[in-house]
Every structure is written in C-alpha cells, then in structure tokens.
Amino acid sequence: MEPCGGAGRRQIQNILTESAGPTPHARHNITDKLTAFMCLCDNVMLEEIRDCTIAEARIDRATWDVSIMELKAFIALLYVRGAYCGKNIEMESFWCEQWGNAFFNATLSRNRFREIMRYLRFDKKETRRCRLTTDKFTHVRKVWYRFVENSIASYRPGSDITVDEQLFPTKSRCPFTQYMPNKPDKFGIKFWLAADVDSKYMLNGFPYLGKDASRPATQRLGENVVLRLVEPFVGKGRNITTDNFFTSLPLAKALLAKNTRLVGTIKRKKRELPPSVQGRSELFSTKMLSVYQCKPRRNVTIFSTQHQHVAISTERKKKPETVEYYNHSKVGVDVLDQMARQYSVRGGMRRWPVAVFYNLLDLAAINAWVLYRSCMSQENIPRRDFMLQLAHELRAEWMASKAPPLADLPFSGAGAEERRRMTCMVKAHCTQNKTFCKCVKCGDAVCGKCTAKVLSVCNNCV
Predict the structure, then answer these.
(1) 3-state DSSP of 50-106
(2) Fewest CB within a 10 Å sphere: which of 125, 274, 330, 438?
(3) How far apart are CA 411 and CA 419, in angstroms?
(4) Mapping DSSP to helix (H, G, I), strand (E, B) and coil, where does residue 131 land?
(5) What pTM, to 2 d.p., does this model score?
(6) Cα dihedral angle (411, 413, 418, 422), rounded to 10 degrees?
(7) What SS3 state is found at 319?
C-alpha cells in the first residue's frame, strides 16, 4: 500500500474500548444448547405465546390447553424441519409411516401439531382493535422486541457492525408487505438489521412499517434507521458500515459525536458532495473522497470517517484502502440472511405474524449457535448439528413428562427396571407373545393374556 498523504495520530474513535463476545450474563447462564437458546427466547416470551394461544383456542374449545413443555416440543419440530431443508415440503409428510421422520411421530401427533399451529397467537384478541389504531406491528410486537432485548443483553459486538435490510419472503396478507425487485423472492416483510461482521450475530432489528410519524421531519429515513439500530453500541469506538441508502454527511456527524465512525458508499448526486466527485476520472484512479474509478463507465464513492489518510494498493487495480475495508465489512447482514435461508423453519403460512415468528426462530438459532460456540469453546460444531441437538434438548422435558414412572408400570417387580422385551414363559396358554413384565412370585416373563386377575380389596378388609 502507498499512503495518499502523511501518517497521522490514530483518532480516538478508531480505538475499541470494549471486548467482543458473550456478556457475563450469557457466560454465567449458558451450559448447553438449550440454555443458549433460552437466553434469547426466555420463559417470559414463551409464557406470552402460550397465554395468547390458549386465549385464542378457548374461543372455540373451552378446555383446550398447552404447556410450556409442549410449546418447546412444537418449536423443536420446526427446527428439525429447517435442519432437513423442509421449507418446500408439506409439513404433514413428516408423519408419513413409510417416508416420514420418527422424531416427529415420537414428539407430537400430527393432529396435535395442527391444533397448536392453528391457534398459535402472539397477542390478545380482546384489545387488538384498539392497539391497531396506532401500531401495525401490534400482533407480534411484544414477542419480537423481547427477543431483540435478550439478543442485545447477551452479546457485545466487535469493532465492525453492518446495517442493512432483510426481506423475509411471504405473500401473506399484510399491511406493510414490500415489493423489492432486486431480491430473490420479490415480496415479503422488510426488516432493518444490524449484525456483527465477524460472528454474524444479529444485534438489533425492527420491521419497516411504512411512514413513521415519530421520525423528525428534517431527518432522512436511512439516518433514522441507523441511529436507532446502533444506539446500544455507540460510544465504544466501533465502525458502522452502510450502503448508499443510509450513508450521508449528517449521519456521519451524528455518529462522530457519539465516538463512532462510519464507512459506506454514497450516491454521487448527494447535495453535500462537491461537484468535482460527480464526473468520471481516469481508470483505477482515486480522489480524496475515495472516488474509485473501477470501470470505464462506473465509479464507486466511499465516504469514511475512519480513514484520515487513505493508502493505495500497488496492485494493477490500485484499490484504495477504503474500498478494501468496505468490501470486507459490508457483508454482515447479507451473510446472516443467507445463513437464515439455508436452514429456515419457514413453511406455508396464511398469517403474517407467523412469518415474523419464523424469522425470529431463524435468527434465534444463529444467535444461540454463536453464543454456544463462544461460551463452551465448541468452535467446530456445524450449525445443522447444533440445530438438531437443540431440537432434542427442547423436547426432552416434554418426552420425560409423557413416559410413565417406573413405579406405575404393571408388575414392576424384580427385573422390571431393565425394560427388555421378553418371550412369555407360560407355554401352556401362550404362543410366545412378547412382554416387558415378569411374575412377581416366580420372576418368569408373563404377557397380558397369561396374567391372572387380581381382586380389588379395600383398606378396611386388608
């Protein structure tokens, strides 16, 4: 690299004053994959979902109920579907006797899964009409922002944060569905996300709901979005990387006032740029605003408050340091979105709050994976294996509650604790039936057909 100007003293906003990684709260609580997930989707969130789901179901069925354990088992099935890339497979086919997955049959019945999915809600219907007058996102606001709060409280990002948009694909009827022709799926719900560049941890996020009356009239949308997303992480010397939708001079000044720097592409037609950067230049040349002429008819303008002096590469293309830095740090949200799509729990849906819940589970699985690897020093565990093991731990409590206690098993005499299938030993009356039970007197295996009836005797007659 050849410096374009003299070397200067390192600026104070370029010094990171906080170590990256899980917070002490997360390190104290995470001992396995389930606790990593519960740091993000805690019992408060699950109880909210359970209460709203029960309230919806009891409109039709007065005695319908679901427990936290069963709700975790329901989420486990969604994660297994995502791990097997089953978003385009009909959900009911996982219970097929010939081609299905034994994990599904052992966890919940197909009809029970249908019931929970049918009644799944994230807010109370009684007060929804009143809340909808001021909040389009009220159907799932509590659950989404509880997840965001837990994500912020569990992880400290490194020196580089990316701010960008995510389009979660869905064609469900929604008042704020967006059409984006440059995205693969075109239609969906748009989220503004902030992600850590190194770990791809989702740091903060909220949906785009259209015109926001609370935004100041003098503040551009991109500037408002960035300041809201990075508010918990400013003042520590971090860098924010954005694309040309967000980058502006007022945003850079606002971040510098909070000891945070900005690097991003900027549109050449912005009013704050001088006229000298709006024309074409010599191929592979760089101006002092990092206007890099990458092609004969195209140049890239990089705005940076991090680089006081820009170095130029000695290679053939002579890329400036700002361009190489931007290429490295711009991918945080894009890679996060690709990871979420790879093993997405998404399936067919008609209600947009369920689509938001699917996106929440996708991001929670990635964040839990990042936390688990850092806290348990398991850097080599593949994300798919983590999701399958997480699903097993999510349903473990529910499976234990379904199994009958050993003392309640019939004929729980000597050897019953082994629970091995045996051949009935009463040869005179039996055709070698299989059984788990033994006679309490002689200890021989005995099936139900060969078992003698026991008379009921009350306590007074014993």
Answers:
(1) HHHHHHHHCCCCCCCCCCHHHHHHHHHHHHHHHHCCCCCCCHHHHHCCCCCCHHHHH
(2) 274
(3) 11
(4) helix
(5) 0.81
(6) -50
(7) coil
Mean pLDDT, the chain, rounded, equals 84
CB 162 within 8 A of CB 241: yes
Dihedral angle of Cα 291, 296, 298, 304, to the nearest 10 degrees:
-20
d(CA 129, CA 458): 59
CA distance 306 to 247: 14
**What is the per-residue pLDDT for 458?**
64
Element (H, E) at 323: helix 321-329
Residue 277 CB-half CA count within 13 A: 20
Backbone torsions φ then ψ of 80, nearest 5 degrees: -65, -40
Structure tokens belonging to residue 162? 């990316």
Please calculate the CA angle 105-111-115 and round it to the nearest 5 degrees. Answer: 125
| Residue 396 to residue 390: CA distance in whole angstroms | 10
Q: Largest Cα–Cα distance of the chain, in whole Å?
A: 108
Here the tokens at position 286 are: 């760089």
Q: Which two tokens stand for residue 326?
A: 């931007």
Query: pLDDT digit string (tens) for 244-303?
Result: 899 988 898 999 999 899 999 888 777 777 665 555 545 444 444 777 777 777 778 888
Neighbours of 335 (CB within 10 A): 13
